[in-house]
Write a structure and sequence with these properties.
alpha+beta, Alpha-Beta Plaits, 20% helix, globular, 4Fe-4S, electron transport
């Protein structure tokens, strides 16, 4: 399951540089996460780095994007070219 950023985002800019997949970018009003690039840091880290640094805890799992650990790993491998 990919992550999402809620409207509680304060645009503090700390999550974007932490994302190893470049899935986070400024949206019209708040930061957004591209679900096609979000692997919840699977393949890179043990925990999602954006969640670790977010000061307002506004990055939950996206209930509309259910993915297993294996699916996230497959996405990581496609994004990075690592098998």
């Amino acid at each position: 399951m990919s992550l999402m950023i809620t409207d509680e985002c304060i645009n503090c800019d700390v999550c974007e540089p932490e994302c190893p997949n470049n899935a986070i970018s400024p949206g019209e009003e708040i930061y957004v996460i591209d679900p096609n690039k979000c692997t919840e840091c699977v393949g890179h880290y043990d925990d999602p780095q954006c969640q670790q640094v977010c000061p307002v805890d506004c990055i939950p799992h996206d209930p509309d994007r259910q993915e297993t650990h294996d699916q996230l790993m497959e996405k990581y491998q496609k994004l990075t070219g690592k098998a």
